[in-house]
Structure formats: structure tokens, C-alpha cells
Amino acid sequence: MTTNEQAFDRARAILPGGVNSPVRAFGSVGGAPRSYVSATGPYVTDIEGREYVDLVSSWGPAILGHAHPDVIRAVQDAASRGLGFGASTPGETELAELVRDRVGSRLLGKLRLVSTGTEATMTAIRLARGATGRDLLVKFAGHYHGHSDGLLAEAGSGLATLAIPGSAGVPAAVAAQTVVIGYNDLDAVRELFAERGNDIAAVIVEAAAANMGVVPPDAGFNAELTRIAHENGALVILDEVLTGFRVSPSGWWGLDDSYMPDLVTYGKVIGGGLPLAALGGRTEIMDLLAPLGPVYQAGTLSGNPVAVAAGLATLRAADATTYAHLDATAATISAAASAALAAEGVEHTVQHAGNLFSIFFSPTAPRTYAQVKEQQAFRYPPFFHAMLDVGVSLPPSVFEAWFVSAAHDDAAVTRILDALPAAARAAGSATPSA
Known about the structure:
Radius of gyration: 21 Å
Largest sheet: 7 strands, mixed
Strand content: 5-15%
């Protein structure tokens, strides 16, 4: 039998770091990452045959649980007709219509399907610059919008995990076109626009931050941010790659529609586990994309019929019952985790954005990236491994959100709850040098 350690050694000989996405390498928690070979419902199984209750959910797409029968059937049917045509298909139109129906035409006039969240945000930024004739982009520290040049300064996700402030290979001239300011700081927004408002093409913001742990926007933050941007002729790009169709049937904007962003990006759930993402917005802006307008974007795999089939099946199955279950399950697990840590005297807070949540090892709930980085992150690795050792797979970084699924039934939740007390003890006994 091949062990996880052996699988990782083999991978490191051919893949940089042994992975194809950095956080998978367990760099912030230590040990050999698990090599998974199958998944069903709320469970994943590794190369050694060990089963784990999964709280990663493929970083969000497995909202129905892994290998949901409707999704698998749709993918198999689509694949049997061909893996891709490099041409238009009816399915891509159906998916775009379904997304618009869920969100509403007030926000989404038209959509463009792409393959990844990075591609969606990259295209949205290009489109905003084309629409405004301006170059400067504003982002928030700790927000992650993919790995395109210009977006990696003070980003979350893997960059937070690895403590990398940016990325080599990004030209200084490109980085200079992005200004990073503190999240939830409207005074900083006002000051920046007062100084450089005529240069700013767009502000890009996670609908609710979930790549530095879960840090929701202050009440009214997104709305006031949008008002300031629009007052100065800039656009607002709402990044819903993580929150879209996961925290409600129409994403975070469905929970707070008191403002009107100009462009929205989607990923994860929209593809049902296969590579698919989208950007959308007002028709007059979207029509600036080629072939109608001067802003170019293209992709051989854009609107891939197999990925579209997975997305359609997932969104069609994600109904009101699904979201009620996600919310209740997230509330149960997060409350139990907090109670277990409190029983061990471990300072912590738990923050939610809908059914997304994460634990911070700090006594007060962080509102900014700087506050997130001040937590006692050294407590997470022993907590993580104590859970993993008894068959519960958490995100391998304290800077990531936890994801539940509609398949997390009483048996799966009980396994999680039973594992928490020992994990909390491990966190409580941790030291900075551990």
C-alpha cells in the first residue's frame, strides 16, 4: 500500500513543492498532505484507505456533498456527447440564464463564462479599465482575487498561509497600478479617493472576506464603498467567487442588496466541482467585451459543456432546503468548536459570513488583515492534526474558511463534535515554538 508520505515524496520529484496549488502542501500545519482518491457525500478517502469527514468541500464547490448523483449523472451524460467543441453550446446559455434568474437582472444584465476565478477577476478588472479609461485599481489587504499580476499584494489565501507579501515575477510597473488599503476602513477609502479619485478605474472587494479567515464587512461598508466609488466615477467589482451561491441562493448580494456593484465575479459553486467561473454586470459594461466591444477576452475552454452540465445540476439541486441545512450545520459545528476551546481556556473568536465560518485564536473578532495576523496562529496546527488523526479534514491553514455541505448528516456532524474536545486540548497546550 502506498502511504500519504510516499505519495507526497513522489509528487515532490515532479511537481514544484509536490502540489499544484500551494496551500495543499500543508506548509502552515506541517506533516504530509493527504492524497485523496475518492469522495462521496460528506466524506473523502485517502490513498491509504482512510476516510475523513470533509470540511473543505473542494474549497466550496461541493455544496451538495461529493459525487452527488444528479451532478455525476449530468457530467456523464455531457461527457458521452463530447468533452468540448470549441464552439457555442445551448448549455452555456442555460447556465447564464439560471445564474441571472437567481440573482436578478437588476444586477446581472449579461454574463461571460470563463474557466477560473482568477480569470473572472482578471477580466473584470480589464473590463473596468476599458469602461473608465483609467488604470488604477484599489483592493483591500487580506482579500484574495486570484493570482494574476497586480492582485497579489497583501492578498489572503495561500499568500497569507505562506506569509508572502506579494510575488516574484510581477513587474514593478504592474504592481504600481494597484493600491492596497485596510479592509473595513471607510476613512482610508475616502482619503484615497480624495487624493487619486480621477485615476481610479475600480475597487475590487470580496463580498465578505473569506481568504484571511472569515471577516465579514462592517454593516453598511459595501454600500458606502460603492457610493464613494460611484461618486468619483469608479466602478465596483464584487468578488463572489467564494460566497456566490453558497451563502444564499443568490450569494452575499442576496443577503444585502442595499448597493449596486457594477461587476460581479463567480466561481466554485457555479461549476459544481469542475473548472468554471463567470463575470457579469450591467449590459452596457458587459457589451464592451469582444466581439461587441474593444475589451478582449477569450478561452478555448470557456463554457466547456461538461463543466456547464455540472454547474447546472448543482444550482438546480441547491434549493431552500439546502441552504437551511447549510446554515444549521455550520451553526452547530462552529458553536461546538467554540465551546470546546472555551472549556480549555483557549482565547478565540468564531466569525461567520452566512454558513462560511472560521476560528481566530484571538480574544476579539478581527476586522482587518492586520488584526487577523496578530492571532496566535501557532495553536492551529495541533488543533488541525488532532482532528485529522481521528478522521476530520479541516482546511490546512488558519487563514481559510470552513465549508459544510448538504450531505453533512447527523452521523458526520457527530464525528466532528466528538473530535473537538481533544483538538481543543491540543490547541490549548500549544506553544509558539511547537
